[in-house]
Design a protein that fits this description.
homodimer; 133 residues; mainly alpha; Arc Repressor Mutant, subunit A; 2 domains; 3 strands; 11% strand; DNA-binding
Chain lengths: 133, 133
DNA sequence: CTAAATGGATTACGACGGTAATCCTTATCT
DNA sequence: AGATAAGGATTACCGTCGTAATCCATTTAG
């Protein structure tokens, strides 16, 4: 997969569901979207599914009279792509201002920080073990 | 300022410049945009300036025959707004997975972490001083 | 003085995205 | 069997966005 398609805000809702549970039929997806948020209209969901297929984010296969959808891109790939775009756009590539914002506005708790530190420590050790850079 | 306007990718380039240097005339802005990236066309910049004014992100005052622009929203406000939207869109509003992602993908350095901790420490103390809650 | 450049207002175009309808076919319900 | 619902393909509408032109008046350059 050379190129990660740009996924719009509304399409993210769909993709997040499909990444959680796939293969999934359009009917199941629509049910679950509605369960999460009643303002979803089935026709809208169908249109967006079609667009995601066109973009290369999803594929489908006929199953009886309905379609079963599966992702063509992983959640991590899309997060990566979206994150880079976002960081470039808003921060010119730097993460720090965003984290500072979340800290200042109390979205990042001491618990988050503690866990973050543990992850970071966990990450450092394998690198040291590898030796080279 | 109750509502932070949604600023598009291209508009961010303009806003970042104006936050750095304002008040600024349209001509100065156009010159600086072109200096950064030759693909900017003056007409495009003018259109986007007008839209940013319409959105409530900028204000202008006539100065001779040209206009002088100033931001109506701070960079911090816009970063905050954009960051929260990003978090909602890509991570369903949850901060922890985002932090974990950035750590795993080495976008968050030990230096960031250290600075983050300093901000967090700085934030905790004033609260304690206030006493209530 | 004339021609060219400049600055802003207005307009325009095509693509995109959210929202949904219409049409057709098939399946289900009464 | 007839009516209704469901599923998908196609179409449509409107606002947004990036891109830029046109028009007009004013300023600047030669």
């Amino acid at each position: 997969m050379l190129k990660i398609p740009k996924i719009t805000e509304t399409e993210w809702e769909i993709m997040r569901l499909i990444w959680t549970k796939h293969p999934i039929t359009s009917g199941e997806l629509i049910d679950q979207l509605s369960a999460q948020d009643r303002s979803w209209h089935p026709k809208t969901a169908r249109t967006l599914l079609g667009r995601l297929v066109k973009k290369g984010a999803l594929k489908y296969e006929p199953l009886g009279r309905s379609y079963v959808y599966e992702p063509l891109v992983t959640e991590e790939e899309c997060i990566g792509s979206a994150s880079e775009s976002f960081l470039d756009r808003v921060f010119g590539g730097s993460l720090q201002p965003m984290l500072a914002y979340f800290v200042k506005n109390q979205k990042l708790t001491k618990q988050d920080f503690k866990e973050l530190g543990e992850i970071l420590e966990g990450r450092e050790k394998p690198q040291n073990k590898r030796g080279k850079k």
